[in-house]
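Structure representation.

___
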Amino acid sequence: MTALTPPDYEAIYLSTKVAMAATALSLPFGIAFAYVMNFTAFRGKLLLEVLINLPLTLPPVVIGYLLLLVLGKNGWIGSFLDQLGIRIIFTWKAAVIASAVVGFPLLVRAVRLSMEHIDYQLIQASRTLGASRHDTFLTIILPLSLPGVVAGSLLMFARSLGEFGATIIVAGNIPGVTQTIPLAIYDYASSPASEAMAISLCVISILMSAVVLLLHEFISIKLAKRG
């Protein structure tokens, strides 16, 4: 492995920062969507499920381009933010949004799976004893869904670390500003003289992902035993 340069360390830091922010941003929405999909019935539920899972099948570049249309200066959200002096495109915030959109289905699926395994009789008993939906959610559903919340958060974090296609479209590849590990590897890979640097960052990326997945398995086993 070749010694890492300061821009490489910045890319590692930014990747971690973006992944953490994307996971934190998505977590409350992921829990809410999982609850709605599991415990409520309404018209258009199938359509909502398709929309939630769509990022799993769409090319990330397509997601990035759609975000660019929405968040760009002429987009219906971007134009509003521009009037407020808020700029999203080609900033690290755009990388967070791109990672959040791409990884969101993984989070929702993990939480939904955990909620599906909750004994419904516990929920019925809680409601029979006078607990509101809000209290039942906080005291029964959410605690029992903790394994799925942890698993989904870690999987989304790992997915965000490797996000490339949507990020490069909506955030660009600006060293020190939006350049994450995958984007830095892309730069190095385009130059034969930088092959060693690309390999070094690949190794770092593999190690980071492996640590997150090992942590995911360890916490999942601990929570399963506790349950």
